[in-house]
Structures are given as structure tokens and as C-alpha cells.
Sequence to fold (326 residues):
Amino acid sequence: MLALETPQPASVLYARVSRVITPMEWPAFAADAEAILRLKRQREAIILAHNYQSPEIFHCVADVVGDSLALAREAARSDAKVIVMAGVHFMAETAKLMNPSKIVLTPDLKAGCSLAESITPADVALLRAAYPGVPIVTYVNTSAAVKAVSDICCTSANARKVVESLGVPRVIMIPDEYLARNVAAETSVEIIAWRGRCEVHEQFTAADIRELREAHPDAIVLAHPECSPEVVAAADFAGSTADMIGYVGQKRPARVALVTECSMSDNVAVHYPEVEFVRPCALCPHMKRITLAKIRRALETLSDEVTIDPAIAAPARRAVERMLAL
Fold:
């Protein structure tokens, strides 16, 4: 059943983020945060927030936080009447796919994704023509229309598992070139990659990692698999955002560098005050389009609602469900 958080005063909410948001900044967030908690109860709503959301969203108003796989699973089991996706558009589409009868809201229709924009259903049709019979594994960072013409979805957390579950010698993996190349290095399955890249993670280079180690020789470097294979090879560990958080929680390194989007370090640092976070990060301009004010507006007005053509939704849902069934 849906657990609705009791509205908290601003002082209680601020205590959750006081390590990463200054007292001077907090007044800009307080009223919206309190209003959102009231509105969630009125609307019987739940807020799903990706790990790249800023701390005032992640720690103060979100009901479920996690990587795209965790959010997809929660979307599938939620009994809320209204789902607000504090994330980019493909995540809101996935929530709608798994909850077709519920109201799914996105706080900003323009919160896109460079990976989702890098491939179209027409591109997938060309790949199928070029490689007949080869299954297509599609990263969740894609539109519902692309998922609909795919065989199965994956996330960065389960990509290798999905690829190997098909029991075939060769697969097409779209659209993230770097994720495909990193998975190819871990499996005997031949992987045909697309040319899409994450505009955040492609900024990092092996030279950046070398400079980081020179400045902080004792730092443990964790990289996201959307980074280039060269960056992944230079890191101490590579994994999804959930895997990175798990590593910090289990290992408790004295100093760590998360080679990914900026807000990750802030969100994890709240829970581990004994860990020093070096921040070699890059901002995702799309994730940062989501704000408390926009979430409040979405709940007040029940907009903008995500809709998907039923002819697209049914096959797209099957591709996601095949992933979730593994």
C-alpha cells in the first residue's frame, strides 16, 4: 500500500540536507517542499526521483529514489493514483507504460536525454534489415517508440545479465555506444553497438582520472558504465548509480570520487558523513530542469500528463516486462 509521508515543518526537512545545502540556500526551497508534502496526501500521489536529482528533491519530497531500474520496478508495483516522475522524459514514459490506468506527470516536458534523442524507430528498422534475426537489447534511456520495436530492455545495472539471458552469440545493443562496449568487454557475446552517447558521461576522459589521482592519490574512483571504456579501465570500480551507492555503503572509503552526474555525490554524502567526496562531476542539463517549484505545479494542476499511443505502449511494455522478469 502507498505510504504517505506526514508533512514536516521546514526545519525538519532541512535537517535532512543540512550537510549539502547551506542555511542561506534553504529558504528558496522550504515553502515548495512543505507544499509538495501536503499536495501528495491530497492527490494520493507518489514521487519517484532518480539518483541525479538535486538533494532538496531527493531527500525532502521523494517517496522512492534510485536508478532507472529501481524506479521502473517501483512504478510497476505502486498503488498511488498519481505518479510524479522527478527525472527525464523517458523515465516518465516508462512509469506510464507500467501504470497505464494511472495519472503520470512530468514536471517539465523538455527534460529530455541525449541518448533517447540519438535513435529513432526508423534507425532500429535499418538495424534489423542489416542484421536479420539478431535480437535488439535497448537501454531504458530511450523513447517508448524505440522500446516498442525492440526485443528487450536493459539498464546499466543489468545490461550484461540481459544480454546473456538471450542465449545467442550476437546481439544489437542500443543506443549507448560506451555501455555496449563496456558490456562487450565482460561477456563472450558479440555486441553490435550504436553511436549514441550520454552528453554527461562522455565528457570524462582517462586524462581526467589521471589528474584526479595525482591530486588525490588515496581516492577510490567509481565510474558509471556510460563513460568510455578508457575511463572505466582507469577507475577502481564501474557500475550503475545503485552499484556505486552500494559500493560506498559497503566499503566506506575514506575518500571517493564518483565519476558521474554532480548530484550523486551530494545525495550519497548525506548518508556517509565520514566519507570525503571528491567531485569530478558534470551537470545533466535535463535532470536539472526538474525543480521543487515545477513538482509543486505538477501536483497543483495535474500537468503535464504523460500519454502514450496504445499501439506503441503495448509492445514497449512487453520489452520492459521482459527485463523486469529476469
Summary: The two ends are 24 Å apart (CA to CA).
